Amino acid sequence: YPLDRAARNKEDSMELVQQYLENYYNLAKDTKQFVRRKDSSPVVKKIQEMQKFLGLEVTGKLDSDTLEVIRKPRCGIPDVGSFS
Amino acid sequence: TFPGMPKWRKTHLTYRIVNYTKDLPRDAVDSAIEKALTVWEEVTPLTFSRIYEGEADIMIIFAVREHGDFLPFDGPGRVLAHAYPPGSGFYGDAHFDDDEQWTKDTSGINLFLVAAHELGHSLGLQHSTHREALMYPVYDPLTDLSRFRLSQDDVNGIQFLYGSPPVPPNDPAVPTESVPPEAGTPAACDPALSFDAISTLRGEILFFKGRHFWRKSFRTLEPEFHLISSFWPSLPSDIDAAYEVTSKDTVFIFKGNQFWAIRGNEMQAGYPRGIHTLGLPSTVRKIDAAFSDKEKKKTYFFVEDKYWRFDEKRQSMEPGFPKQIVEDFPGIEPEVDAVFPVFGFYYFFKGSSQFEFDPNAKKVTHVLKSNSWLNC
To answer: Could you identify which of B106, B116, B164, B321 might form a hypothetical disulfide with B36, taking C-beta atoms 3.0 to 4.6 angstroms apart as the criterion?
Structure first.
């Protein structure tokens, strides 16, 4: 069924967050599982790690502040872990 | 810092702007990069010089999408740029996404701000969690460029890697107890201040000292204070002499047995050249001071207790030289630190003293403090 707009936006945000965590916070690239795993502790931990690094309120949830920051332009270097 | 704390094992680094974005004039890109390097130069012992071919420590490129490092850019927005930590080959290099709109202000993506951030990576800094830090990963379009400063976290990070700028080693002109708060920068109103070299430039006067210079205009009371490298990145610091040939709109800068030519803030091609190409004998290792008298069209080179005179019309050193300085400039004791001509007088500098010399009366008419021009 065509996704309604809210569901579509939600899915876009999921993709964006997944990519962000993979690119900058060393989240293992495991595409299939992300949406189902969103509430799993590894993903929540990564969201909390990102929120802490960027000075956001550490909720472990994809609140509006968090979604706003990850849409902003930034440097392509990871925030944690090595870069080569 | 990055894992393993990669850092440069030398303090003088080279950089090369390999290509340009079409969003800005080339000189705007050049000065944004220079300014970005100066940000780090001012708080470390690091110095940078630009090369125009071959492999530099820091290669700067503009590119879109896949550009050869397996980290493709992503089109407009999101990733703006990336840079690699210190090391050989592509390490140390900085890449800018040319799908962004690069600007001098913040109407688009400000090139200076992003370059200063990326060059922090090229020097070994990782991201900061401090929102006010230059090394914070997210670009802030609301940064007030006119009040830009490194945050304490940025300074702590870079000085953890390279230390703070050097204080001139036991320089008598800057006794350690009077070193100003930002160590390594000379104080204009230090009564013991001496200069390395002084030159006029298009109606202004430049007072060179170490890595810095004061720029004195007759239109303003307060002199400006700059790093030499922020205007002329490939000029050395601690220069020996400088003079302006107004008919050529060119300032010549001397250090050791070489000299450079600058026009405004443009380095002239074909320099540095050897000082012996001017006709000085090979026994001369360096010159102490020099000035050019535009009325007489003669340029004077001072070396220890002697001086030579160069004919600007014939473009050759005059016969019958060197002569003793005291012979034609009675009251001027060798060695001269610096000298410049203005208002028909020659102002000679030695240590913290300045001697106003009247070439017509052939005598010293005033003795002043060296820093009397700096509105102390």
So the answer is: B116
